[in-house]
Amino acid sequence: ALNNKNYYGQDVTALLNKVLQVISGPDSQYQKEAIRKHLAELPQEGGYVAIFNGKNLDGWKGLVGNPISREKMTPAQLAKAQEKADDAMRAGWSVEDGCLVFNGKGDNLCTDKKYGDFEMYVDWMLDPAGPEADAGVYLRGTPQVQIWDTSRVNVGAQVGSGGLYNNATNMSKPSHVADNKLGEWNSFYIKMVGERVTVVLNGETVVDNVIMENYWDRKQPIPMLEQIELQAHGSKVSYRDIYVNELPTVQPFELSADEKKEGFKVLFDGTSMHSWTGNTKDYVAEDGCIVLYPQNHGGGNLYSKEEYKDFVLRFDFQLTKGANNGLGIRTPMEGDAAYVGMELQILDGEDPIYKDITPYQHHGSVYGIIPAKRGFMKPVGEWNTQEVIAKGNKIKVILNGEVIVDGDIKEATANGTPDKREHPGLFNEKGHIGFLGHGSVVKFKDIRIKDLK
Q1: What is the pTM of this model?
Q2: Which domain holds residue 21?
Q3: What is the pLDDT of residues 340-381, one digit of tens each?
Q4: Do 301 and 435 touch, CB atoms closer than 8 A?
Q5: Are 268 and 390 members of one domain?
Q6: Cα angle 11, 14, 17; round to 5
Q7: Computed from CA positions of residues 405, 408, 411, 412, in that sequence, does the dihedral angle turn out positive or negative?
Q8: 10-22 and 28-41 helices cross at what angle (nearest 10)?
Q9: What residues form DSSP beta bridges with 291?
Q10: Which of 40, 123, 179, 218 has the fewest CB atoms within 10 Å, counting from its CB?
Q11: Does residue 424 share a domain with residue 306?
């Protein structure tokens, strides 16, 4: 604990104070001073809390349905179902030698409390007697961080534990096997922020910031607040040392009253990228923003799942020095959006590295077609607000309240494309919205759209 200040909270403080009382030996005075110094520097609020007391099932309950079915129940219906589930829970779950033990009969064990963003530690051990040793941890009531006997090759368990087993689109398997031998204790560190999950198994990262899908309704993002569950899967399993640290949760972006009346809808609310597809590995939801952390000098593209024809799009963006990105509109998901669709440039055009670019390559320009006015971008590191209105052949771009593009793509290409390049998708009737990575860290937030049907 002294080497990691991320370990803090009432339970950590209590353990270190206990060490102060029992530590002895020639160097104990130096160790005590180090512990006291460490305790004084730790935050006084928050931190890890034990959600299993090692003595009984206080703080835990039986499983009732799933998040969707529970939401449909009246308080009276839920209370009645919970009473029945609690009776069943006590037949399958017990405390033995300071461990939570499932005997193989019954259903999941659930926390009384609901959690938003959190990180947790939990140790687990599968019983070699099985049968078919299998378990898991449900996050916000959703399956699951997988636990299984890696020798069960008939069900694919040779990939190892820790994967997001029920993912259908995003990565479901762990990166590698990090399990200890069957019958030995294993340790999970699990972090969940928004819809993204990181899993460290026995000190090795096996899932790195992967989107967890909503198994109960894949058309919806994962619940933002729900219970943690220890899965019952018909075989004996033990858990111990379960600690949770609740993390600050981003409040979802909401439309203004006027935008609601006008018919806008949110494309990104700061918590979930459920409306987007494409490179969801390098484009991540972080602190209320979509942030591109490009790998291999690229970054790829992120696309709206839906297609749009005529629309009003509003968003905020923040550039880093020399940043280059793009806004694809009416574009397919394959090919270079600047040509197979239409790209509106997103660029720190005042950086010296762009001193030789053409007028129709500056920020806001319809790339290669219509140049944008310059001088309205805020300094690097500050947030900019942009609105794009696409209606037929007419494109308008408003940056920080100033119209920088107001043109007609048909008129602009009456004598051929200004950049002398082929733009076969310029007049697409509809297509996806896209953020087009070019190797730079860029942030986007408060993304909303009005379909001009």
Answers
A1: 0.84
A2: 10-45
A3: 999 999 999 999 999 999 999 999 999 999 999 999 999 999
A4: yes
A5: yes
A6: 150
A7: positive
A8: 160
A9: 284, 443
A10: 40
A11: yes
